[in-house]
Amino acid sequence: MRNGAAFLFLVLLDAGCSSRSGHEPTATGTKSAACLTPRHQVTTLYSGNVSGFVAVGDALVVQGDGLVRVAMSTGQTTNIAMVQDPYDLVALDGTLYFTAEQLAGTPDAQGKQSSESVFQSVSADGGTPQTIPSMTPGTLAHAVDDDSLYFDVVSANAEVLKLTPPSTTPVELDLDGSILINAIAVHDGEVYIAGDDLTSLSSGQNGVIERISKNGGPSKRLVWGIGHPFNLIASDDGLFWVEDSEDFGPSHIVHCDFDGSSRGNLLETTASSLAIANGRLYFTAGDVESIPIAGGKPTIVASGLKSPGMLQVTGGNLVWVDPAERALSDPTVPGVMTTCIGE
User: What is the separation of C-alpha 131 from the centre of its chain, rounded to a whole number of angstroms?
Assistant: First the structure.
């Protein structure tokens, strides 16, 4: 136990969170992956300070009070590294990459010492974090593919910062215009970003979707003049994101092809995160729900939640955090939860 955080492994059947999926997810050309927890049950794997997580094999690594490894099949926890306020956690080839706070300089007369943000890496099996001083990523968006990491960057120019380990020198992928990047997705060698065009005269319709090769070169603006886009994901079925309404009404989930064509609304809902598996689009909007990727009536996957978010698919499991966002005065302890959606 650290800082009063309790680690739980509970199967929630008749408690406040219940799994009410009334269907078996159907694969569309892809075989469902095996599950690591029981079907039709919501399991709380971890409870404590949670600001994000990544999947590493059959385990999750949770960022919050340091980095903690959680076995999905048992809920057993292992401390990986005690780092201060880690964020933007990603995993690649058994190595974790993240930004954390580190003491800097010397204490003043009152014994106070300043801190600085540093980009670090550490083995998912544990060890001493190593600082990568050449990396100064932003805090709004990140993604990973088979060999590289991608981050937004605080710059006067619109750029995506790419790092391909073992190199410690990042490459800048230049975008078109001046864009505040909200989300990054990578698919089939292409990097896609959702953001806001800061040069647009319409603050409510300045959203853009752009594409650039992961190897660099000119970028292409695929979609523009839309509401604020966020939660961008890419799959073999195209691009999906959540888009704010121009009249301050409900947001909606949007789909388009990889060239920006055939753009259309799939569902009107204020979703806080998206994930795709087995021919279905999963989203968090008060409950955890899903719809066919072509659109249709939502099906509830898990209900009785407070504010779920950070949705991810790992193997045959859907994983999320609840509450993903809460007021500082809210005493609710966040939990990392999962349910089986595969075999």
Answer: 23
Structure tokens at 183: 């989300």
Backbone angles phi, psi at 342, to 5 degrees: -105, -140
Per-10-residue mean pLDDT of the chain, 343 residues long, equals: 37 36 32 74 94 94 94 93 92 96 76 83 95 90 96 83 95 91 97 93 86 96 94 96 84 96 93 94 96 93 95 95 89 94 79
Amino acid, res. 197: D
CA atoms within 13 A on the CB side of 275: 21
DSSP structure class, residue 118 = E
Structure tokens at 75: 């809920």
Judge if the upstream peptide bond of residue 25 is cis by omega within 30 degrees of 0: no
- Residue whose tokens read 């060999």: 147
3-class DSSP state for residue 165? coil
Q: Report which of 159, 175, 73, 80 is spatially closest to residue 120, judged by C-alpha positions.
A: 80
CA distance 324 to 334: 7
pTM of the model: 0.86
Contact assessment for residue 168 and residue 148, using Cβ atoms and an 8 Å cutoff: no
